[in-house]
Amino acid sequence: MECTVMLQRILKTAVVLLSSLAAMPACTTTAAAPESPGYIAHPEARAFIDEMAARHGFSKDELTAIFSQAQRREDILELMRRPAEKRLAWYEYRKIFLTQSRVDGGVAFWNQHAEILESAERELGVDAQIIVAIIGVETRYGGNTGSHRVLDALSTLAFDYPPRSKFFRGELENYLVLAQEESIDLLSTKGSYAGAMGYGQFIPSSYRQYAIDFDQDGRRDLWNSPMDIIGSVANYMHKHGWDLGAQVVIPASVSGNAYNAVLDKGLKPQLAMKQLQQAGITPSAPLQDDVLAALVTLENKDGPGYWLALNNFYVITRYNRSPLYAMAVYQLSEEIRQARQQFLQARHD
Fold it and tell me: Can you give the C-alpha Rg of the chain in angstroms?
């Protein structure tokens, strides 16, 4: 009997306690969001670290610390899927670069660095107006050298962009080596969404291969040394076969249907002018029969326009493989040249 009474009291107490607990406000605790592990959690990144240690002698611990701070960037992946050169027609693309402010900026840049440009033209055989125009198209004469951290851009494209992962893995490798060679800060350096750097927007492999120490101070600095910037752009064009003072591109007209087959031949000049004329292609100015050219079509508002691209046009496409880019550089260079001539003439008068 006493046991029964005691058990009833215990049960009654338990019920009261449970009721009290149920009446208490819920305890809300928000767990701190775990910090992003960066790319160190990515299996391909870990394999890449092993490769870099074996191939170049990098410290695995140092690379682990670096890639733990590298971040995947969705905006970069989206930009890679929709580059302006593929989604815009020529008449739309042209409006971006052929502006009065970019022409005026080119004249100012040329005037400021006239002696360096003259030296580059003389020593490397590349027209000053082309050097200026490339820097103008790429970064507005250094006004916008990129807002994406290069480490993030190259890591994202190397490990999370399968269509070109092999290429960008190579660029990431070159970037790590370049950082040692030129004392570049891996964690703070910014560039384009594709990892291009400096006034001339050199990707790491191009930086290592074509950038030059034009001011001979022991470093190739494409952000702060006008001599290195100008000399490196000139050297890139020189190494790809620029012909000083030669024509770049000539408007053309077409007739018949045979010219369509020529459009499939690519951007490299490989057909002689005589062959092109036999295909119904006529240049707006006479060219010798043995001159090699390629036929390029660009979309104007009122329909396609046709151009005969010569060697120098092809060389510009080695900097960026789009014919839209090459035409923008060429036309901007011509407008800058003409504007500067007017400026110099007015100052003389």
Answer: 30
Average pLDDT in the chain = 90
The pLDDT tens digits of the residues spanning 61-101 come to 999 999 999 999 999 999 998 877 778 999 999 999 999 99
Question: 231-270 burial by CB neighbour count: b if 16+ within 10 A, else e?
Answer: bbbbbbbbebebeeeebbbbebebeeeebeebbeeebebe
Tell me the residue ranges of DSSP E strands in 28-178: 148-149
Catalytic residue flag (residue 35): no
What single letter denotes the amino acid at residue 27? C
Residues counted in the chain: 349
**Distance of CA 222 to CAs 153, 196, 203, 206, 264, Å?**
19, 11, 11, 12, 37
As given in the structure block, the two tokens for residue 49 are 């670290």
Query: What's the pTM value of the predicted model, to 2 decimals?
Result: 0.88
The residues with which 300 forms a beta bridge, in sequence order, are: 303
CA angle 299, 305, 309 (to 5 degrees): 105
- Compute the distance between CA of residue 192 and CA of residue 190 in angstroms, rounded to an integer: 7
Please state, in angstroms and rounded to a whole number, the distance separating the CA atoms of residues 309 and 298. 12
Catalytic choice (85, 92, 138, 335) = 138
CB-neighbour burial class of residue 37 (10 A; exposed 0-12, middle 13-18, buried 19+) = exposed
Work out the pLDDT band at 36, boundaries 50, 70, 90.
low
Pick the closest to residue 329 from 340, 342, 318 (CA basis).
318
As a whole number of angstroms, the distance between CA 136 and CA 59 comes to 39
